[in-house]
Design brief:
mainly alpha, 18 residues, single chain
């Protein structure tokens, strides 16, 4: 379940980067 959380945060950071 932690992996999912990390993926979600990463997706968020990726979107914010642009």
């Amino acid at each position: 379940m932690e992996e999912y959380q990390v993926s979600l945060e990463l997706d968020r950071s990726y979107q914010q980067a642009f």
